[in-house]
Amino acid sequence: MPHLPDISARSDDTDRDAPGRPGRDTRHGLSGQPHAGRDEAGDSHDLGARDLASRDLSPHDLPSYDDDPDLTAGGSAAARLEALIGDLADEPPPVERMSTPALRATSWLAIVGALTITLAVFADLEELFGRMVDMPEFALALAASVVTMGLAALAAFELSVPDRSPTWALVPLPSAAIWIGASIAGFVRVWMAPDDAYDPTLSEVRDCLVLILALALPLSALMVFMLRRAYSLWPRLAAATAGLAAVSAGLTLFNLFRPWDAAAADLFVNFIAVAAVIGCSVAFGAPALTRTLRRPAKKSPRT
Predict the structure, then answer these.
(1) SS (H, E, C) 247-302
(2) Predicted structure pTM score
(3) What are the extents of the domains in the chain?
(4) Kind of pairing, strands 35-38 and 44-47?
(5) Helix residue ranges per DSSP H, 59-172
(6) How confident is residue 259, by pLDDT bands cut at 50, 70 and 90?
């Protein structure tokens, strides 16, 4: 890049001679500190404000966001926010306005509701309702899992918006705590009545785990796909919350076909399912939510 002469002195004289304008040193920025730069020989010198404005930056001088570790799923929110602002300032193309997070969460929940109605056709609803009446802990756990699913879905879509606080991830935790507590209470109830307890075989436990994962993992993938339209500053947190919503939905649907009452194997299956779905959501969903920012377009050099 050719070196341009320093015109700060001329601009300074012009400012002093202009009527009604007090003289000011344009070699200093708004903070009163000189702008430091380097010429082609590597010597440091002060750049005037109009020097900076008159320079036409080449494409190599513009920031590039490709392969930047700070902008990956594990990067800091501040770095991702700064990159997003720079990307938006670089004349972005017009985009279609997104629906609100609540409306997008409702769309995902509607799909889960349609799946629930479809599976309920093949379930023994009379036995399910009888179990809810006989075991209040089971009914409470089922209700808490439904509430956790809804709140986690809302939190995930809220976290996909750049201006949302990461504290949205805390929203589904109270209902999740009630869900866990009610499940443990149901296990204690069955454990204290050994005559009514059922000891499932290893193959039955495996089949239940496979069924839960078969229900939850596609719902998690669907939510991650819906979240990709936005730009999250907290991709790992959004993916983890999406996984919580999906596994809550999977376990809720599993209750339609639960072959036994709460037992130690039941708690083990639930724990493995929650850990597996949230882990897969973070491992595969967080990179998918890390949108690659556009490289600034090349500018033609001035003649």
Answers:
(1) HHHHHHHHHHHCCCCCCHHHHHHHHHHHHHHHHHHHHHHHHHHCCCCCCCCCCCCC
(2) 0.66
(3) 1-55, 101-289
(4) antiparallel
(5) 77-89, 101-120, 125-134, 136-159
(6) confident
